[in-house]
Structures are given as C-alpha cells and as structure tokens.
C-alpha cells in the first residue's frame, strides 16, 4: 500500500502524510493517508484519492542529492578513528560521535512530527554519556 500511495503522489505531483491512531496501550487502531498539494501547508489543497482509480503508470522524480541528515566527518588523518583532531572530541558535538545529525529540513517540511523531532536531543545526550563511559573504559584499559 505504501508503494501505491507514493506512486499516486508522484503521478499527481503531490505529497503524502501517514497518520496513525492509537489506543491507550499504543496499539494501532486506525491508519490515515493524507495527500497535500503543498508539503508546507497541510490544510491548503488537501486531496483524497481512492485506490484503485487512476493509479496506473504514475511517476515523479525528486532530487534529494543536496539533503543531508547524517554527515560523517573524517578526522585529520582521513579516518573516523578518535584522535586529538576528531569531531568526536569537539565540545559542541552533542553526541561525541563521528557524525553530525540534522533533521531540521524534515521537521520544517512536516516529514517528521514534533514528537520525533524532540526525541533527537535526548538521543544525542544519551549517546554522549555512553561515549564518555567508553572513553573512560578505554583509558583504563590502556592503563592496565
């Protein structure tokens, strides 16, 4: 069904959004597919298309080559190993990983929800704690 909705969206040059309804135990009790003319304006130009009508030979090409959500940064030696010139040791790096996460575009366009966007920062903090523990263990191992 996902491929069918994507094919429909490509055919008509529109965008899809998938919404799920949950009960109090977080079991899925409903699924909705919403089609939009404009990905930024959810309430304007909403369309409904019913399968299987008008759903054959649909295609659309989107260039996402300039979109980056996870960027790996090589250290000064051209590797991803930790050393004194690594992004892993940079103070602003929230996760102390060898990559940078950025989901701002996906959030601004509505591709991810506020809940998903808000989960990024706690994930980075938790990864930083794990990586700091690993560094301590690595240093202790080296001492032994």
Give the spatial strand order of the biggest sheet.
1-2-3
| Unreliable parts | 41-47
User: What does the oligomeric state look like here?
Assistant: single chain
SSE order in H/E notation? HEEEEEHHH
Share in β-strands: 15-25%
Protein described:
By secondary structure, this protein is α+β, with helices and mostly antiparallel strands. It folds into 2 domains: 1-62, no CATH class; 63-144. It is built from 4 helices and 5 strands; from the N terminus they run αβββββααα. The protein has helices at 2-12, 104-108, 114-118, 120-143, and strands at residues 15-22, 28-36, 46-47, 70-72, 99-101. It has a 3-stranded antiparallel β-sheet. Strands 4-5 form a two-stranded antiparallel sheet. The longest helix is centred in the last third of the chain and has 24 residues, at 120-143.
List keywords for this structure.
144 residues, alpha+beta, elongated, single chain, 3-stranded antiparallel beta sheet, 5 strands, two-stranded antiparallel sheet, 2 domains
How would you sum up this structure in a few lines?
By secondary structure, the protein is α+β, with helices and mostly antiparallel strands. The chain has helices spanning 2-12, 104-108, 114-118, 120-143, and strands spanning 15-22, 28-36, 46-47, 70-72, 99-101.
